Protein: Outer membrane protein
Organism: Cognatilysobacter bugurensis
Amino acid sequence: MMINKALLALALGFALAACSNEEQAADSAVEAADAATAAQDAASSAVAAGDAAAADAAQAAADAAAVAADAAATSAESAMTSTDLGSADSAADAAAQSADAAEQAQEAAENAVEN
């Protein structure tokens, strides 16, 4: 009976870790999408202001943010469909890194407009 309880506790721990990876990956994908949207908004503002150089720089950054957001979404999907904890963890980490890249691109787009 003690072994059954230990196995049940271990299985529960794995299930919670898997949920955590899925949630982390999904949150990262949302953050990346938000950053890509903000970067595109900054590029659109530069176009509206008539500053061609800032618009070009901001659009390049917005494009980079969109690529990072796509990568985060792909990684999040991988985390959610992964059948083992190690792969899910790696995919969640990749999604977080992609979200960071999208946020950096957002900052670059916003800086291009401000300068």
User: Anything to note?
Assistant: Residues 2-49 form the longest helix (48 residues).
